[in-house]
From TrEMBL:
Xref: SUPFAM superfamilies: S-adenosyl-L-methionine-dependent methyltransferases
PROSITE patterns linked to this entry: RRNA_A_DIMETH, SAM_RNA_A_N6_MT
Superkingdom assignment: Bacteria
Protein residues bound to S-adenosyl-L-methionine: 24, 26, 51, 72, 97, 113
Family membership: Belongs to the class I-like SAM-binding methyltransferase superfamily. rRNA adenine N(6)-methyltransferase family.
InterPro entries xref list: KsgA/Erm (IPR001737), rRNA_Ade_diMease-like_C (IPR023165), rRNA_Ade_Mease_Trfase_CS (IPR020596), rRNA_Ade_methylase_Trfase_N (IPR020598), SAM-dependent_MTases_sf (IPR029063)
Domain Ribosomal RNA adenine methylase transferase N-terminal: 31-196
Single GO MF annotation: rRNA (adenine-N6,N6-)-dimethyltransferase activity
Keywords: Methyltransferase, RNA-binding, S-adenosyl-L-methionine, Transferase
Native species: Cohnella phaseoli
Name assigned to this protein: rRNA adenine N-6-methyltransferase
Length: 278
């Protein structure tokens, strides 16, 4: 019983703490400017702002673009924003959890200083089938996550899938002192741009993730050994030829184009009962 109470107290403390929703508000003018410049906004753009806070980005954005859709979960912030945005016809405020709100159906950009704790959920939403109209964005991410998403190679199947459709680029480091209250780690601005020629449809995402997870379970293994488990010998020969991959090449060194080619050969020629499942 005592142990249960202690656990209960700990949970309450976390939930009621000042930063359970990642409320680290930007106050540094240069970072605010850099974030907005990173996304190359046009006056006709629609911008989705995730976690608008007190509006430090919302109002400058509304001066640059046609429409700002500002999503904020905290009722107190929304109240402040509503008062401030009364005479701003370009700003649409939505109170709610970004994870549960439908994304725009028409092309849109994202500019946001997001709550770090839900970074993956936000990116999953933007880069999945629901985010079909997401074009480009500038996001402030926790520095470690920013490095992970932008490093040249990855063995994370989900990140590989995102990279089939989007390019990630590390822009500027943002010291924790640029936020109030400061988070426990520094941050960085990351630019995300949809590829002109996507390598895969987001609708195929889950199948690709299962395919890549299967292959990356032994990243140092030669591709011929790995993919023997999926393709017949004839199919394997054709798949490697189509993808221009040497039989002895390690899975870890496959390029995005080679991943896409091997995956599409599987979809086209291999019976679904041999496809890896999640
Ligand atoms: C890092 S702060 C950024 C605030 C403001 N944009 C700024 O830069 O000062 C993140 C904001 O996201 C809000 N937030 C947290 N979780 C959210 C969620 N699931 N959906 C929408 N907003 C959320 C927080 O209340 C907070 O205002």
């Amino acid at each position: 019983m005592r142990r249960q109470n202690k656990k209960h107290r700990t949970i309450r403390k976390c939930i009621s703490g000042p930063n359970f929703t990642g409320q680290h508000l930007l106050h540094h003018p240069q970072t605010i400017r850099q974030l907005m410049e990173t996304v190359l906004l046009r006056s006709t753009d629609t911008v989705l702002e995730i976690g608008a806070g007190k509006g430090v980005l919302t109002f400058p954005l509304a001066e640059k673009v046609d429409r700002v859709i500002a999503v904020e979960m905290d009722a107190n912030f929304v109240k402040t924003l509503r008062e401030k945005a009364e005479n701003h016809p370009k700003i649409k405020l939505i109170q709610g959890d970004i994870r549960e709100i439908g994304l725009p159906a028409k092309p849109f950009c994202v500019v946001a200083n997001i709550p770090f704790s839900i970074t993956t959920a936000i990116l999953e939403k933007l880069m999945g089938a629901e985010g079909h109209a997401f074009q480009r964005g500038a996001l402030i991410l926790e520095k470690g996550a920013a490095r992970r998403f932008t490093k040249s190679s990855t063995m994370d199947p989900r990140l590989l899938m995102w990279r089939m459709n989007f390019q990630f680029e590390m822009r500027t480091m943002v010291p924790r002192t640029h936020f109030a209250p400061p988070p426990s780690v520094d941050a960085a601005i990351v630019r995300i741009v949809r590829r002109d020629h996507p390598l895969m449809s987001a609708k195929e995402g889950n199948k690709f993730i299962a395919f890549a997870a299967y292959a990356l379970s032994e990243p140092k293994q030669p591709v011929a050994d790995t993919f023997r488990g999926i393709f017949t010998p004839v199919q394997l020969k054709m798949a490697l030829k189509n993808a221009k991959v040497d039989r002895e090449q390690a899975v870890a060194f496959l390029s995005l184009e080679q991943w896409a080619s091997l995956f599409h050969t599987m979809l086209q020629y291999v019976t679904p009962n041999r496809w890896p499942r999640k």
